[in-house]
Amino acid sequence: FSLALISFFTATISSIFVARKIREGKGLEKINYTDHYVICGWNDLADELLEAFLKQDNEDKAPIVLVNELSEEEIDAWRGKLNASHLGFVRGDFTQDQILAKANIAKAKAVLILPNLIKLGETEADEKAALATYTIKALAPKAKVYAYILHYENKAKLRRAKADGIIIADEFGPYLGASQLH
Predict the structure, then answer these.
(1) What would the DSSP string read from start to end of 1-54?
(2) How many angstroms separate the CA atoms of 3 and 10, rounded?
(3) What pLDDT digit, counting tens, does each position of 53-70 carry?
(4) CB 124 within 8 A of CB 157
(5) DSSP assignment, residue 95?
(6) How confident is the model at residue 107, as a pLDDT?
(7) How far apart are CA 35 and CA 93, in angstroms?
(8) pLDDT at 19 over 70
(9) Is the pLDDT of residue 137 over 90?
(10) What pTM value is reported for the model?
(11) What is the Cα–Cα distance from 7 to 13, expressed in whole angstroms?
(12) CA pair distance 182, 176, nearest whole angstrom
């Protein structure tokens, strides 16, 4: 009886850990990092930005949390490609309070908002960046927030949202974005 009881508890504990690991991989669990960097959104430049940031961050190995709507397979591919074991992931809309809470935004060092061109047009992407800036500043007033926008005329919206830095799209954007976070 005691052997069966021990086996039952061991199996239960193992299944809890496995289920949690699966939920983490899918971006459904809360991240427990502190003094981490958060990158919200995804577009064609995000991969260059992430590579540039990881090259600059060789010594620190500061945790990075991606908040976007990519699939689990795409995130796993990035973890493997960049050899980044300290790359967390939260799936969802980065303007939503509960999604940002899962990314532990209140304890983040800095946040970079990218124009999310997966589902939005350029104008809507800049507007979403402004909304995300307002939301993040309300939830984490001490975190530095940098917004990457596509159109210069939207810069005033980000200033009103109190963005700490604004990057306007050009060919140097990924490198400027990575250097702003440090």
Answers:
(1) -HHHHHHHHHHHHHHHHHHHHHHHHTT-SPP--SSEEEEE---TTHHHHHHHHH
(2) 11
(3) 777 666 667 788 888 887
(4) no
(5) T
(6) 92
(7) 22
(8) no
(9) yes
(10) 0.75
(11) 10
(12) 10
